[in-house]
Amino acid sequence: MQYKIHDNIKLDLISSHIPICLAGDLCYGGKLHHVIVGTVYAGSIPARVVIGKCEGYLLPLKYGEGSYQLVEIYYVESWRFREVVKQLSQVLGIAIKSQTVRLKKDKCVVYCEALVADNEACDVVVQENIQRKWVRVLLAMPPHAVVVAPPLAVYPLTIDNIEPCPDGQAYCEAPGSSIVVGVHDIYVNVNRLREAFPNNVELNILPAKDPFNKLYCVYTPLKRERL
Domains of the chain, with CATH numbers? Predict the structure, then answer.
């Protein structure tokens, strides 16, 4: 199976890495995140997910329904992908399967393998009660903006059609341009992230690429154009 994860980026199951998406206790800081340690974090994106309580863990049951959750995307080595599914099934004692899903927010579109639990073995949880207060995101830091949170890591990634605004506090649209941006991998309180930039700046999720042409979904502070 081949994945078109952006206009000119394609991966398949024989590629060295494939994108997977995680929700619930599989996310960073969750009880089961250790299962995917060593994978490459590629950003987060909102998606509609039904979450269930399975053997004491919060796990995704189905994508495309339920309320919006922030889903984390990771690249995993193709040979290890099946091992991750197998290990989760053994740890939980219930069937874990994958389904190919399309996630889109703003200009970032990604097809990935979503890990979901057998919903017959789980109790559906009220979505409003599981909204996370801390989230992991990739944030394109403007050159003169105050650091939002201490980064877990910083990556140089290429983002098209933007450039730093004259004051260096945000990015402005610049069709046809392509720049390398210092992207911060941060674990941050949701309220802190919302309040980090002025009211005339919106956080849009834009596609970014690394030198190996892998896609990342990056929160990018864009200054709104005056009407």
Answer: 2-130 (3.10.490.10), 134-223 (no CATH)
